[in-house]
Q: What sequence folds into this?
């Protein structure tokens, strides 16, 4: 199951904050995502969590001492720095951030950071007053200017019991920052893309809606994959159970009409539109003001056709549609390419194994404006997304 971290060498730097325990979860999720994770702990971090805990999760040696003669790395800081695809320091304490800003190298982690040339993410975690301190803010600004990706901190309950800014971001958010950092200078850098996702919900009355089985996973994967190649992403999302991805603009909508308005607004400055959303073709003609009572044996709801968002969104941008079909896949999808004036369509047979609603994989057939057919194998939705962006990258108008 290939994703953005598959096969990557990641150095996880852990410094002394109570949020260290969350770094174990991060390590675990990175390993599950197929990454090689080497942990370097500051002395302070070892007071909160043992090196053994990280070693047990990553199945790799944990570096804690610059002068450890038994290490499998000959000169650790240089060896780890050289092989890393990305380094994340999580949690990053105020002291570690200050050392990084100064370029100090007095322990294995800071030495590795000074020796590294790969992308760097730091996830601050500290008390709110320490975060607000002018020195901390100045140090973070220095690091940001140097190209370091600063992930958070978040706002919420702090270890002190107070509410405020200073929380370590949650693992899924940190994973988003890591894959963004690795790809931010990619082939979509400088491009703006609009992606729609999820299934619209059309109200019948204050309680009920007409919707569909779309999970939103394909659209969210497309948005994340574009972000991870450097694009500015606007994700227009109909209701899903998915958390907002980091480092993009997420516009939440419910109905086809709201989605149409949002898409129309954001494509004005976009280089591409990818409509992965399952948009309702019909909506109740009128929404009942009060809950409909079950007085009658039969209930007929008059439906009105919705506007076709993709068809009406015309302009100087690359236009990609999806075709969810249960029969005559290629034939129906080809008709949509010309009917909606598309540059590309991703057709998927919703009855095929591994391609159903809610699945993490998809088997799609890509059809271009010339109607040439490219059948892709069963891939993760993230991989399918990258195949679509590969095609879009060759279709930009300027
Ligand atoms: N689409 C849209 N606006 C709509 C309906 C669909 O923008 N009101 C977009 C979808 O997001 C998708 C493409 O059009 O990218 C094809 O959607 P699909 O549901 O497969 O086809 P329809 O055009 O709705 O035709 P049909 O339901 O008859 O197959």
A:
């Amino acid at each position: 199951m290939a994703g953005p971290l598959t096969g990557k060498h990641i150095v996880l730097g852990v410094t002394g904050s109570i949020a260290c325990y969350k770094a174990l979860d991060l390590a675990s999720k990175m390993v599950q995502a197929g990454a090689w994770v080497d942990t370097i702990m500051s002395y302070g971090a070892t007071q909160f969590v043992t090196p053994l805990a990280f070693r047990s999760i990553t199945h790799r040696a944990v570096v804690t001492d610059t002068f450890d003669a038994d290490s499998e790395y000959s000169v650790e800081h240089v060896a780890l720095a050289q092989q890393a695809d990305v380094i994340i320091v999580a949690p990053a304490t105020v002291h570690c951030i200050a050392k990084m800003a100064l370029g100090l190298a007095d322990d294995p982690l800071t030495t590795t950071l000074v020796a590294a040339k790969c992308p760097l993410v730091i996830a601050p975690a500290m008390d709110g007053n320490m975060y607000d301190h002018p020195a901390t803010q100045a140090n973070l600004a220095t690091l940001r200017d140097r190209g370091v990706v600063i992930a958070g901190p978040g706002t919420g309950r702090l270890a002190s019991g107070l509410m405020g800014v200073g929380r370590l971001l949650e693992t899924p958010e940190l994973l988003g920052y890591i894959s963004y950092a690795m790809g931010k200078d990619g082939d979509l850098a400088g491009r703006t893309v609009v992606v729609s996702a999820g299934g619209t919900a059309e109200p019948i009355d204050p309680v009920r809606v007409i919707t569909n089985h779309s999970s939103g996973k394909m659209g969210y994967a497309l948005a994340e994959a574009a972000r991870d190649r450097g694009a500015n992403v606007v994700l227009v999302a109909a209701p899903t159970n998915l958390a907002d991805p980091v480092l993009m603009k997420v516009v939440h909508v419910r109905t086809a009409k709201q989605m149409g308005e949002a898409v129309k607004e954001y494509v004005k400055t976009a280089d591409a539109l990818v409509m992965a959303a399952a948009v309702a073709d019909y909506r109740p003609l009128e929404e009942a003001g009060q809950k409909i009572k079950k007085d009658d044996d039969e209930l007929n709801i008059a439906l009105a056709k919705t506007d076709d968002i993709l068809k009406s969104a015309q302009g100087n941008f690359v236009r990609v549609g999806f075709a969810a079909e249960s029969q005559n896949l290629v034939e129906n999808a080809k008709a949509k390419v010309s009917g909606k004036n598309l540059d590309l369509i991703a057709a998927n047979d919703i009855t095929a194994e591994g391609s159903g609603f809610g699945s993490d994989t998809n088997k799609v057939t890509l059809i271009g404006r010339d109607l040439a057919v490219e059948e892709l194998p069963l891939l993760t939705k993230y991989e399918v997304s990258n195949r679509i962006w590969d095609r879009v990258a060759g279709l930009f108008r300027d």
About this structure: Residues 82 and 116 are 6 Å apart (CA to CA). The first helix runs from residue 20 to 32. The chain has a mean pLDDT of 94.
